[in-house]
C-alpha cells in the first residue's frame, strides 16, 4: 500500500536511493509516541505500509505479548530524565516514564498533536501566558502502586534544578526563579512559582510569557517522582516507573531489561500502545555486527530493532536499496535533526567573525553527505530551523558551487583577517560513533584543503553530550546534533544561541555564543503570544544568527533504521527525534 507521505519527500528519497544505488554497485549515525494510544490494539494495517521510495512507512500490525530486543553499540547516557538529553534516551524514557504532556503522531497523515499525558488536557493560561494550570488524570500510579500527585511533579521539577543534576533539557527553567534556585536537596522549601493547591492541580508562574509552555511540559524533567523520597543518584541506577514498563535489571554498558509495570493503567494513557510484555536493550555491540544481525534477521533477531544510535552503516545501504524485502522492514528516519559544526567563540581565533564566516565557506557539505551514507540518507543544511517549522525561510548566506565548499575563498578571508592560515591548528571534539567520526573526518579534510590543521578528539559515545556540555572541557570546535519535535524557534534556537543560558554544566550553547543584541531578540520574541507572529520573528532571527556564524550547518539526516521481520507497528515518530517509537512497536506473532 502506498503511503500518504508528501510527494516532495518521496521524490527526494527516490532520487537519493537511485543515486546511492548506482554508486554502491559501481564501487562494489542529541528535545517530545504511539499514534493510536491504548485504544487501538491493532496498531496499524494487516500488511506493511510503504513510502513512495519503497521503505516501510509502518510495519504490519503487532499483537500483545512477547519480548522486543533493541540492539545497540552505545549505552544510554542517563536513566535519570533530569540528566539525559539525547534522542535515543528520550525515546527510551517514554517506556518507563510519563510526562505532563506528550505527542501523538500519525505516520499516514504526518499529523502530530500535543495532548495531555499525566495531565487531563493541555492546561490553561492567564491572558499573557505567564501562569499555567494543569490538572492530573485520576488513577495514575507508580510501579509500587503509590498514587502520583501534583506534589510529586513539583518535587521532581525542583529536584531537576539541582546544579549537579541539571545537565538535561533546561526548557523548563523558564519557571520563575528556577535559574537561581539551588534545588530541592539544598533548598527544601521549594519554589513559590510552582504551587499545588490539591493532589491533582499544579500551577506554574513563569518569568516571562510563553504561549506554548504546554509543549515545554512534554520534556523529560516533567517526570514525577515520590515527594521527598528520592536520593540524589538513585534514579540513574534504579528508576521509579510511571510508564508501562519498569526496570528489572540494569548493567551499565551491557543491558537494560524492562518488564511490564502492572500498576500502569492503559485507560489513563492516550500515548503508548505498549504491546510487548518486555524489552531487552543490549549494548556494546560492534556496529558491523548489528548490521549483519539486522540484515539476516535470524532466530531471536526476527524480534529485534536496531537502536536509533546505530542506523544502518553506509556499507549496508546498497544491499537494502537493492532488496525489496529488506526495504519493507526498513524505516526511513524523519529529518527532525540538524548536524552542525560548533565554533567555540571564546577561543581567540574563533572569536573573529571573519574566521567563522570563512569556515562556513570552507566546508564541503557534499563530502559530509557521503560520510553520512549518501544522498539517500542526508541532505545539505545551510541554516538552523527545520524544514517543517511554520514560517521558516530557507537561505544560504555562505553559498558555494553545489555546496562543495570554497577552500581558496576561506583561506583568503582568514589571511585578510590577519592570520597565517598555515599556522592555524584546531581541536575538534567528536562522538565516538563511526558515522560521527566519518563526518568529522570529512570536515577535517575540507579544512585541510584550506590549509587549516585539525586534530580529532574522540569522546565516548555515552558520555559525549555531558563532556562537551561542560564549557571548561570544550575545544575549538565540535560535531553536534540538535533535534526538534516541538516545531518552533523556542527549542531549536534558544538553547543553542541564547548567551544568557550558558552554564557550567549541562550547557547546550556549544559555541558559547553570547551576543547581547541576539539575547535581546530572544527576550522580545518570547513576549509574543501570537504563535504565527512569533514563528515569523524566529525565522528572521535564524538569519541574524547565521550572519554571526557561530556554527556551520552541515546536513539533515534521514538514516535507515531496520527491524526484524516479526516486529510490527514500527514507524518513524516525529516527536521521537524522527526515530522508530519504542512505545509503539510490538511483535506480529508474539509466539514466533
| Biggest pleated sheet | 6 strands, mixed
Question: With helices defined by DSSP (H or I, 4 residues minimum), what is the helix count?
Answer: 17
The CATH architecture classification of the largest domain is Roll
Helix content: 25-40%
Judged by helices, strands and strand pairing, the structural class is alpha+beta
In what range is the share of β-strand residues?
Answer: 15-25%
* Number of structural units classed as domains: 3
Radius of gyration: 23 Å
| Spatial shape | globular
CATH class of the largest domain: Alpha Beta
Low-pLDDT stretches:
1-45
Number of strands: 23
Strand order of the largest sheet: 16-20-15-19-17-18
CATH superfamily label of the largest domain: Dipeptide-binding Protein, Domain 3
| Distance between the ends | 25 Å
List the helices and strands and how they pair.
Layout: H1 7-26, E1 49-50, E2 56-58, E3 67-71, H2 87-96, E4 101-106, E5 111-116, E6 124-125, E7 131-135, H3 150-160, E8 194-198, E9 201-205, H4 213-216, H5 234-237, E10 245-251, E11 255-260, E12 278-282, H6 287-296, E13 304-306, H7 314-321, H8 324-327, E14 330-332, E15 337-343, H9 353-362, H10 365-372, E16 378-380, H11 407-416, E17 425-431, H12 434-449, E18 453-459, H13 464-468, E19 477-483, H14 489-492, H15 494-497, H16 516-526, H17 531-548, E20 551-557, E21 560-562, E22 567-568, E23 586-587
Parallel strand pairs: 3-12, 3-13, 17-18, 17-19
Antiparallel strand pairs: 1-2, 4-5, 6-7, 7-9, 8-9, 10-11, 11-12, 14-21, 15-19, 15-20, 16-20, 22-23
Helix pairs in contact: 1-7, 9-11, 10-12, 16-17
Amino acid at each position: 500500500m502506498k503511503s500518504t507521505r508528501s510527494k516532495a519527500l518521496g521524490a527526494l528519497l527516490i532520487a537519493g536511493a537511485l543515486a546511492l544505488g548506482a554508486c554502491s554497485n559501481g564501487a562494489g549515525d542529541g528535545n517530545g509516541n504511539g499514534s493510536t494510544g491504548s485504544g487501538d490494539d491493532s496498531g496499524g494495517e494487516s500488511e506493511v505500509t510503504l513510502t513512495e521510495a519503497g521503505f516501510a512507512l509502518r510495519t504490519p500490525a503487532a499483537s500483545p505479548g512477547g519480548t522486543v530486543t533493541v540492539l545497540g553499540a552505545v549505552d544510554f547516557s542517563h536513566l535519570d530524565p533530569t540528566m539525559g538529553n539525547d534522542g535515543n534516551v528520550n525515546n527510551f524514557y517514554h517506556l518507563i516514564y510519563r510526562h505532563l504532556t506528550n505527542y501523538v503522531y500519525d505516520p499516514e497523515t504526518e499529523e502530530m498533536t500535543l495532548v495531555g499525558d499525566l495531565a487531563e488536557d493541555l492546561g490553561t493560561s492567564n491572558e499573557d501566558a505567564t501562569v499555567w494550570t494543569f490538572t492530573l488524570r485520576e488513577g495514575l500510579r507508580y510501579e509500587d502502586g503509590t498514587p502520583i500527585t501534583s506534589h510529586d511533579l513539583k518535587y521532581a521539577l525542583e529536584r531537576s534544578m539541582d546544579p549537579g543534576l541539571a545537565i538535561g533539557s533546561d526548557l523548563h527553567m523558564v519557571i520563575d526563579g528556577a535559574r537561581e534556585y539551588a534545588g530541592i536537596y539544598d533548598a527544601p522549601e521549594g519554589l513559590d512559582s510552582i504551587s499545588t493547591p490539591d493532589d491533582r492541580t499544579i500551577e506554574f508562574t513563569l518569568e516571562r510569557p510563553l504561549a506554548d509552555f504546554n509543549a515545554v511540559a512534554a520534556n523529560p524533567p516533567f517526570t514525577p517522582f515520590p515527594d521527598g523520597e528520592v536520593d540524589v543518584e538513585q534514579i540513574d541506577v534504579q528508576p521509579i516507573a510511571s510508564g508501562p514498563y519498569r526496570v528489572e535489571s540494569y548493567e551499565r554498558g551491557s543491558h537494560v531489561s524492562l518488564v511490564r509495570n502492572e500498576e500502569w493503567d492503559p485507560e489513563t494513557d492516550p500515548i503508548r500502545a505498549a504491546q510487548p510484555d518486555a524489552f531487552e536493550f543490549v549494548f556494546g555491540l560492534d556496529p558491523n555486527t548489528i548490521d549483519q544481525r539486522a540484515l539476516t534477521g535470524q532466530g531471536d533477531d526476527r524480534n529485534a530493532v536496531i537502536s536509533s544510535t546505530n542506523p544502518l552503516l553506509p556499507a549496508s545501504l546498497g544491499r537494502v536499496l537493492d532488496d525489496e524485502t529488506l526495504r519493507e522492514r526498513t524505516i526511513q528516519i524523519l529529518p527532525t535533526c540538524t548536524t552542525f559544526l560548533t565554533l567555540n567563540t571564546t577561543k581567540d581565533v574563533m572569536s573573529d567573525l571573519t574566521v567563522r564566516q570563512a569556515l562556513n565557506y570552507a566546508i564541503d557539505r557534499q563530502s559530509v553527505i557521503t560520510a553520512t551514507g549518501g544522498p539517500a540518507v542526508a541532505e545539505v543544511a545551510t541554516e538552523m530551523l527545520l524544514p517543517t517549522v511554520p514560517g521558516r525561510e530557507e537561505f544560504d548566506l555562505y553559498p558555494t558551487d553545489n555546496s562543495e565548499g570554497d577552500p581558496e575563498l576561506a583561506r583568503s578571508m582568514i589571511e585578510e583577517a590577519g592570520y597565517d592560515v598555515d599556522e592555524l591548528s584546531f581541536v575538534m571534539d567528536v562522538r565516538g560513533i563511526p558515522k560521527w567520526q566519518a563526518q568529522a573526518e570529512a570536515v577535517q579534510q575540507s579544512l585541510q584543503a584550506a590549509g587549516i590543521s585539525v586534530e580529532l578528539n574522540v569522546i565516548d559515545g555515552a558520555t559525549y553530550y555531558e563532556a562537551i556540555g561542560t564549557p571548561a572541557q570544550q575545544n575549538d570546535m565540535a560535531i553536534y546534533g540538535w533535534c526538534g519535535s516541538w516545531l518552533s524557534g523556542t527549542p531549536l534556537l534558544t538553547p543553542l544561541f541564547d548567551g544568557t543560558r550558558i552554564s557550567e554544566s549541562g550547557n547546550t550553547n556549544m559555541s558559547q555564543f553570547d551576543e547581547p543584541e541576539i539575547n535581546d531578540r530572544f527576550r522580545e520574541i518570547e513576549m509574543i503570544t501570537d504563535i504565527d507572529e512569533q514563528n515569523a520573528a524566529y525565522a528572521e532571527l535564524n538569519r541574524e544568527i547565521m550572519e554571526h556564524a557561530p556554527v556551520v550547518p552541515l546536513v539533515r539526516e534521514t538514516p535507515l533504521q531496520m527491524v526484524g521481520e516479526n516486529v510490527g507497528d514500527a514507524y518513524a515518530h516525529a516527536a521521537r527525534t524522527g526515530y522508530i517509537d519504542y512505545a509503539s512497536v510490538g511483535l506480529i506473532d508474539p509466539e514466533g
